Amino acid sequence: MAKADIQIELRGGEVEGGLMRFEPGASLQGTLQVTPEGDIRCNHLYVRLQWRTEGRGDRDEQRVAEVDVFQGTLQAGMPSSDGFHFTLPREPWSYAGHYINIIWEIAVIFSIPLSPDLRYHQPFILAPRRGP
Q1: Which of 35, 51, 71, 97 is 20–30 Å from 109 (CA)?
Q2: What region, left, alpha or beta, does residue 70 occupy, with left being phi > 0 and alpha being psi -120 to 50 degrees?
Q3: CA of 91: how far to CAs of 1, 34, 51, 94, in Å?
Q4: Which domains can be identified in the chain, with CATH numbers?
């Protein structure tokens, strides 16, 4: 199974409770750095902007935007860096409740032939700034 060290740096927001918080409609910029432990042949390396629900009841998720940042072979031990940019939607806002949570995240998906996809998720908060 393919393994890699994956780091995502998000810019354009502010730190709140250990996560980056972004205003609805704002610009989210980021950098993805991948250092594979072994060679990884990728049909595609996607960076996705998406949200999902957790909690009681049916699960829901929606892919808002996607960028295909790489196709080819990532070489073992050789860091690869790619930038990405998304304009965030106005809703739904991040929410942590008793019965349901809405979680926004940047997802990194390695589409690997004849093998399970390698996935990584970096959550963030999408919500307007609270009072003064």
Answers
A1: 97
A2: beta
A3: 37, 30, 10, 8
A4: 4-126 (2.60.40.640)
